[in-house]
Amino acid sequence: MSAKHLIAIPLPAKESGEIAQIYRQHCGDRAPRRIGPHITLIYPFRVDVGKLPLVNSILAEAAAAVDPLAIELDGIDCFENKEAVIYAKVSPNNGLTILQSRLMRQLAPSITFQGEVFESFHPHVTLAKGLSQKERESLFGELQSLHLRYRFQCDWFCLYQLNQSHTKWEEMQAFPLSA
After folding, report:
1. pLDDT tens for residues 67-92?
2. Number of independent structural domains in the chain
3. Nearest 5 degrees, angle CA 78-CA 79-CA 81?
4. Residues 166, 70: Cα–Cα separation, whole Å
5. Measured distance CA(176)–CA(4) in Å, rounded
6. 76 and 161 in contact (C-beta within 8 Å)?
7. To which H or E segment does residue 59 belong?
8. Rounded distance between C-alpha atoms, residue 82 and residue 11, angstroms
9. What's the pLDDT tens digit per position in 33-63?
10. Domain CATH number, residue 20
């Protein structure tokens, strides 16, 4: 038996609250949020329940090898994909890229990716999705005018599991960065 998981960095409470408000304001019930504002490190994947201890061990080892990270969100951009995602840009961060690459490389033999596996890591925080082109164009300009900028310390990342009703990602375990 397998379950669906993802690995992400949850935003601190203050930043999370402000970004969640932006999301609710502009997406409402059209695209309900199944997880709080976060930076995805590893997109949804499946893992057999029997391999979960190995996955947890890999995550703990990777977290122990990385110092806490200074994260900066600076500005707004969008993906021109089918969901028309508008997001807060994560400023280039070598430590974040190294962490994601290490996780991807070490987990790949033990997990099954769901859907498309992206060749390049593009860290971001989703602000709105599921918009029509007209809505996206209007909202994009509005959000750019906010001059969104946040700085925070990332001290951990989390393993999440999608609940049985597929309505919410639930935190299973946090892994402190502690190099």
Report:
1. 999 999 999 998 877 677 889 999 99
2. 1
3. 140
4. 32
5. 22
6. no
7. helix 52-64
8. 25
9. 788 899 999 989 999 989 999 999 999 999 9
10. 3.90.1140.10
